[in-house]
Amino acid sequence: MMALAWLVLLPAGALVARFYKVLPRQDFPAVTDSKAWWRAHLLLQYGGTALAAAGLWAAWDALDGAWNLSNPHAVLGLAVMGLCAMQVVSAWLRGTKGGPTDTHADPADPGTWRGDHFDMTRRRRLFEGWHKRGGYLAFLLAVPATWLGVGLIGLPGWVQALPLVSAAVFAAAYARLTRRRRRVDTWAAIWGPSPKLSQPEPRLGAATATARKGLSRAGSSLEPGAPGRRPSQPGRP
Predict the structure, then answer these.
(1) Does 154 share its domain with 210?
(2) Which among 80, 85, 146, 187 would be 20 to 30 A from 132, CA to CA?
């Protein structure tokens, strides 16, 4: 259970959130706010978290709650699950969304578009900084934890190599998608590139100018950063 969660589901969910906010055939930025990546991210992350929690419970039950904290596997495993729990809690506390399509917003009244994400408040920036870094750290620790755990069970050597294979596949996919410039900032993926972003992602082409004109018509109240501020590049994570 732990291996499936940490070597397949959770890394896949991270890749989806990182590189598929805009789908390959999506006419971005003319078409924004695809919900496909969000649904896939939730399914993979909550599914992986549930599976990991079940694995932790199984280990607790098998050991009658007697953790051996001198064992590196136990220490790493508990650290990973602690980070996992913090990821879930941080997601619950990320704040409001805002924007013209928010539940309580009037698309014709920019004054109703306020929200932590739309305005990129300090709360939202702290969430994004932690959520990404904490997730990557959890995966990095999960690889040796899983490797040690497989060794304790006494499975064949090729099975013990699977955590390393998973890490290599994840790293290769990450590098390839980065080279293909698949990263699009979450704010831009939902609402389109900001008029203040002076260097658009090259792959966006002429459509970026069209999106900027549309945002500019809404006036300065649309631009993110009323209380907060945006990153300087639309391609940043």
Answers:
(1) no
(2) 146
Q: Could you tell me the residue range of the domain that residue 96 belongs to? A: 52-59+69-160
Q: What per-residue confidence (pLDDT) applies to 211?
A: 39
Q: Are 139 and 145 in contact (CB under 8 A)?
A: no
CA 82 to CA 77: how far, in whole Å?
Answer: 9
Q: What is the DSSP string of 106-130?
A: -TT-GGG---TTTTT-HHHHHHHHH
Read off the pLDDT of residues 119-128 as tens digits, 9 standing for 90 and up: 999 999 999 9
Helical residues (DSSP H) of the chain, grouped into ranges: 2-4, 10-19, 36-62, 72-92, 122-153, 157-160, 162-179, 186-191, 207-217
Residue 219 lies in a domain: yes
Please indicate, yes or no, if residue 105 is contained in any of the structural domains: yes
Answer yes or no: is 8 within a domain: no
- How high is the pLDDT of residue 48? 96
pLDDT given for residue 153 in this prediction: 76
From first CA to last CA, the distance across the chain in angstroms is 30
**Residue 19 forms part of a structural domain:** no
**To 5 degrees, how large is the angle CA 15–CA 180–CA 132?**
30
> What is the reported pLDDT for 69?
78
Nearest residue to 186 via CA among 108, 122, 84, 99: 99
Q: Which parts of the chain have pLDDT scores under 70?
A: 65, 194-237
Closest by CA to 116, choosing from 124, 108, 125, is 124
